[in-house]
Amino acid sequence: MALNKQTFKTRTLTSIVFVIVMLFGLLLNVWSFLLLFCIIHFYCWREYEKIANLISAAYNTASQFQKKMPLVAGFGLMIFMCNHLPAINTSSINSFGLYLMIICLIILFIAFITNRNFKFIIFSLIGLFYISVACACMINLRTSGIISDNAFSIDFGLMLPLFIIITIWINDTMAYIVGSLIGKTPLSSISPKKTWEGTIGGALLAVATVTICGYFFLKADVIQLIIIATITCIAGNFGDLFESKLKRLANIKDSGNIMPGHGGFLDRFDSLLLAVIFVWLYIKLFL
Q1: Which of the ends of the chain has fewer CB neighbours closer than 10 A, N or C?
Q2: Which pLDDT does position 262 carry in this prediction?
Q3: CA 279, 13, 208 angle in degrees (round to 5)?
Q4: Residues 6+ apart with CB under 8 A from 6
Q5: Distance of CA 163 to CAs 142, 157, 160, 207, Å?
Q6: For residue 147, what are the β-bridge partners?
Q7: How far apart are CA 287 and CA 285, in angstroms?
Q8: What integer pLDDT is reported at residue 148 of this predicted model?
Q9: DSSP assignment of 188-234, as one string?
Q10: Residue 173: what pLDDT?
Q11: Average pLDDT of adjacent 10-residue blocks, the chain of 287 residues
Q12: What's the pLDDT score for residue 156?
C-alpha cells in the first residue's frame, strides 16, 4: 500500500488536534477528564446506535427510550467507578451512579421480557461492554490517586491513562507508516488495508518508545512498562478490527465524519476502548 501524502497529512493534523484535546482533558484536572470522557461516551454510543440500526432490523424496532437506557446505564457505571473526587462526597456520587445503572438495567430487562427483542438486548450489552465499561475503566484509573515510594511519588491516575493514550497513538501512527512503506501481507479480510508488517512494526515501535521514555523520565519498572504497552497494542488492534467488522456489517466506511482522516468518534477511539479494559484488568489483578 503506497503512502498517500495528502491522507497522511490530514491524519497527522487530526491526530495532533486529538492529542492536544486529550492532553488538555487529562492534564487540567480530574473534572476536565470526566467531562472529556462523558463526551466521548455520548458520541461513541450515538455512532454505535446508528451502526446497530443499520445491522439489525430488530434493534431498529426498539423505541428511542429503550435505546437510550444502555447509554444512561453506562453513564451511571462511569459515576460509580469514580474513586477520589475533590470537593465532593465520592461515596454519595458512587451510590447515585450505582442506583442509576441498576434502574436502567431493570428497564432493559423489562423491555426484553415484554418484547422478546433478543437482538436489541445483545447489541445493548455489547455496547455497554465496548463503550461504557471502557470509559468507566479509564475514569477509574484517572481517579486512582498517587502512589509513593522512597524514591518519588507518582500520580498513578495521571500517568497511566496518559501512557495508554500515547501508546495507542504511536502504535496507530507507526502501523500506518510501516504498513504504507513495506506492508504486503493483509492482516485480515475485515480490514484489507491493514497488514501484518504494519501491525507488528507499529506495535514494536510503540512498545519500545513508551518503555524507553517511561524508564528514563519516570524511573518506572521496565517489565511492567513492556507488559502494559504490549497489552495496549494487542487489545487496541482487536478493538480496531471489531469496529471494522461492525462497519462492514453496516456497510459504511466511517462511523461518523467529525474527525477528518479518521472518521467519527468510534473510528478514533476504537483501539483505546478495548485496550483500556484489558489494561485495567491487568492493573487490578496483578499490580
Answers
A1: C
A2: 63
A3: 40
A4: none
A5: 11, 10, 5, 11
A6: 154
A7: 6
A8: 42
A9: ETTEEEEEHHHHHHHHHHHHHHHHHHHHHHH---HHHHHHHHHHHHH
A10: 87
A11: 61 74 82 93 96 93 92 96 80 91 94 88 95 96 64 66 92 91 87 89 96 88 94 96 94 82 84 96 91
A12: 74
The cell for 268 is: 478514533
**Which residues have CB under 8 Å from 224's CB, separation 6+?**
287
Our CA angle for 199, 24, 39, nearest 5°, is 80
Tell me how far apart the alpha carbons of residues 97 and 142 are, in angstroms, rounded to a whole number.
Answer: 17
Cell numbers representing residue 254 in the block:
466511517
What cell numbers appear for 224 in the block?
A: 511492567
| Residue 263 DSSP code | B
Rounded to 5°, the CA angle 118-251-60 comes to 30
Contacts 24+ apart (CB under 8 A), 103-112: 104/69, 104/70, 104/72, 104/73, 104/76, 105/69, 105/73, 107/66, 107/69, 108/66, 108/69, 108/70, 108/73, 111/62, 111/66, 111/69
Dihedral of CA 124/169/37/230: which sign? positive
Q: Find cell 498513578 and name the residue.
A: 156
| Grid cell listed for 129 | 461492554
pLDDT at residue number 196: 92
Predicted TM-score of the model (pTM): 0.88
| Cell numbers describing residue 274 | 478495548
The half-sphere exposure of 168 on its side-chain side, counting CA atoms within 13 A, is 28
